[in-house]
Amino acid sequence: MKVSFTQKEFSRLLELMHLGLWVAGSRPDDPATMPERYAAIAQKTFGLAEVFGCADLVEADVNGQFFPNEKLTDGPAREKLDQFVEDAFWGELALRLAERDLRAEAGATKLSEELTADEERRLAELEDGYWREFESHGVDHLVLLRGGRG
């Protein structure tokens, strides 16, 4: 099988490689964080950067291992990662607080694997309330009560 890419397509592929590796736990500034599962394909892809006219997006360390350089990691990929982290943070915070409140309302220490229709509805209401709060005030109104509830 033969695959061809334009320079623009391959630069986007490198961005996707960086984004995927970052989500999988790899950090460009620390080669030891490269997940073993993806190391070979990452090296193969980054190693082809010069062939596709994208050598300015990749560097090699003293061991000859390729990694994305700042031009790749600080460009559009950085904006995508920042947005991903932001969305993941707020989504998880709203959901976890809503689940905590639903457990407290039910007097349970754990929610069942499958929620009833009423529990699903109530969870959505709680989560929506947190989203409205966070959209209006961010974390300004959050208070952590250590050792208990208020």
Describe, in plain words, how this protein is organized in 3D.
It is a single chain. The protein is built from five helices and two strands, in the order H-H-E-E-H-H-H. The protein has 150 residues and is mostly helical. The protein has two domains: 7-73, no CATH class; 81-137, no CATH class. The longest helix is centred in the middle third of the chain and has 31 residues, at 76-106. It is elongated, with a radius of gyration of 22 Å.
List keywords for this structure.
150 residues, 2 domains, two-stranded antiparallel sheet, 5 helices, 57% helix, elongated
Question: Which helices and strands appear, and what pairs or packs with what?
Answer:
Elements: H1 7-23, H2 36-47, E1 58-60, E2 66-68, H3 70-73, H4 76-106, H5 117-137
Antiparallel strand pairs: 1-2
Helix pairs in contact: 1-4, 4-5
Q: Please state roughly what percent of the residues sit in beta strands, choosing from under 5%, 5-15%, 15-25%, 25-35%, 35-45% or over 45%.
A: under 5%
Provide the spatial order of strands within the biggest beta sheet. 1-2
Secondary structure category = mainly alpha
> What characterizes the major β-sheet?
2 strands, antiparallel
What is the approximate shape? elongated
Tally of separate domains: 2
Poorly predicted sequence stretches spanning 5 or more consecutive residues: none
| SSE arrangement, N to C | HHEEHHH
Calculate the terminal CA-CA distance, rounded to whole Å.
64 Å
Helix percent reads 55-70%
**Total number of β-strand segments?**
2
Helix count, DSSP H or I runs of 4 or more residues:
5
What is the C-alpha radius of gyration, as a whole number of Å?
22 Å
Mean pLDDT: 91
